[in-house]
Amino acid sequence: MEKAQKLWNDCLSVIKDNVSPRSFQTWFEPIKPVKLKSKILTLQVPSQFFYEWVEEHYVELLKKTIQKELGPQGKLEYSVVVDNHHSNQKPFTVKLPTTDKKSIKNSAVAMPIDLNQQTPIRNPFIIPGLKKVNVDSQLNPNYAIENFVEGDCNRLARSAGYAVANKPGGTAFNPLLIYGGVGLGKTHLANAIGIEIKKNHPNKTVLYVSSEKFTHQFIDSVKNNTQNDFIHFYQMIDVLIIDDVQFFAGKEKTQDVFFHIFNHLHQNGSQLVLTSDKPPVELQGMEQRLLSRFKWGLSADLQAPDLETRIAVLNKKMYQDGIDLPKDVVEYLAYSITTNIRELEGALISLIAQSSLNKKSITLDLAKQMIDKFVKNTAREVSIDYIQKVVCDYFNLPLELMKSKTRKREVVQARQIAMYFSKQLTKSSLATIGAHCGGKDHATVLHACRTVNNLIDTDKRFRIYISDIEKKINLS
Ligand code: ADP
Ligand code: MG
């Protein structure tokens, strides 16, 4: 038991460096090491869902880490706590051997994923009789084009991707360079293009590789004196997808070899798809001749997702995972997380995980707590102006009326509600609030707050107004 704990602590410190703090908190902190026996570490996880998630997303990392700590014979077993709500049974455990199939599959392909830095990498390019068809394309099947939600933010890149997928090498979009900030879908789209090409043109050799991996392979080939194999391998690819080319910046030798491969492929009508976190002009440390090649084709950007796209992404993800969340929760997520689709997904996952771990159903309150904890580090304060706008929208009143001195009944009530929320949700003084709402004094604001409180206690319909408006304000 102690041995297991110690080993797991060592593993955790490695894992921590390899996943985001949020993933670590969500997926690794809840794991308990139960025993370590003949190089098999048994971990207890809180649910079947949890187990599946960890296996699906972190199997490589776990394997790598365990083998680093225990040597190549290191193995992992899971024990899932099964909690039966309807009976008083105690939790019991089932043993599930880790699905080794996945990793075996990955290490048998032409380009093995290096699980263990200590063992020398089998050079992928000197496999005798390597035929084109043997190249594993390294595409991630989860990143299908059907799963890539279309929106204003990505329309150009997406349709260029489609065009390329239909006629790889046969459009003006060669290379196709997809650029955009982190978490906006570059890797997803690049994979989607590859998957479509494989579907439309089964005979074409497609290869997805990160520029980091490309660089490492190149360095190894230099070390092993197999540079020619390396170059030949890449030159026989029909569709080469290189992710995050900004990583090449400052790496002259790698750029040089890539330049030659690029030219060869381009001349032979092979398709190149590149992604980058910056537009070509801003790629510093990149050779001019390479940059000018990038500009031969099309550079299409992915922008921050608009609200509709964010909601659509959440809906799609929920549909895929067979989860159903209340509409207000989905909207809250989409309103709160605006810059990055990866974060949006992360928040959704954390939310589901939280609710499955705590066995609570997902409510707006839970969503807010979670978002505050995981995502929003700085609580934003809503402004009086914003509150007024929401209230006016709700009652369908022009904003000028609220700010005017009119004493029309419906305006007075809306104004009182705005004052009430301003008092509750902002740090403004009564006088400031009054000044914003038709030049009233602090006593009027105080009176408004009391009136609203009274009505909440006594008038059912009014109570509904207030809770509706409150929701809308919180969605800001
Ligand atoms: P990048 O490579 O630009 O950093 P990724 O391609 O890794 O971003 O995308 C981050 C996450 O967001 C992935 O899980 C991806 O599936 C998802 N994603 C990005 N764009 C979309 C989209 N348009 N529709 C659906 N999911 C998306
Ligand atoms: Mg990426």
List the helices and strands and how they pair.
Elements: H1 2-16, H2 21-28, E1 32-37, E2 40-45, H3 48-70, E3 75-82, E4 92-97, H4 100-108, H5 155-166, E5 176-179, H6 186-200, E6 206-210, H7 211-223, H8 227-235, E7 239-243, H9 252-267, E8 271-276, H10 288-294, E9 298-301, H11 307-321, H12 327-336, H13 341-358, H14 364-374, H15 384-395, H16 399-403, H17 409-425, H18 430-436, H19 442-458, H20 460-474
Helix pairs in contact: 1-3, 2-13, 5-6, 7-8, 11-12, 11-13, 12-14, 13-14, 15-17, 17-19, 18-19, 19-20
Level-1 CATH class name of the largest domain: Alpha Beta
List the bound ligands: adenosine-5'-diphosphate, magnesium ion
CATH topology value of the largest domain: Rossmann fold
List the strand order in the largest sheet. 6-7-8-5-9
Secondary-structure element series: HHEEHEEHHEHEHHEHEHEHHHHHHHHHH
Number of strands: 9
Helix content: 40-55%
Beta-strand portion reads 5-15%
Mean pLDDT across the residues is 83
Task: Characterize the structure shown.
About 11% of the residues have low confidence. A 5-stranded parallel beta sheet has the order 6-7-8-5-9, with helices on both faces. A 4-stranded mixed beta sheet has the order 1-2-3-4. The longest helix has 23 residues. α3 links the parallel β2 and β3. α7 runs antiparallel to α8. Helix content is 53%, strand content 11%. It has 20 helices and 9 strands. The chain has 4 domains: 113 residues, GMP Synthetase, Chain A, domain 3 (2-Layer Sandwich), CATH 3.30.300; 158 residues, 3-Layer(aba) Sandwich (Rossmann fold), CATH 3.40.50.300; 68 residues, Helicase, Ruva Protein, domain 3 (Orthogonal Bundle), CATH 1.10.8; 92 residues, Chromosomal Replication Initiator Protein Dnaa, Chain: A (Orthogonal Bundle), CATH 1.10.1750. By secondary structure, the protein is of the alpha/beta class. Bound molecules: adenosine-5'-diphosphate and magnesium ion. Adenosine-5'-diphosphate (ADP) binds next to α6 and α13.
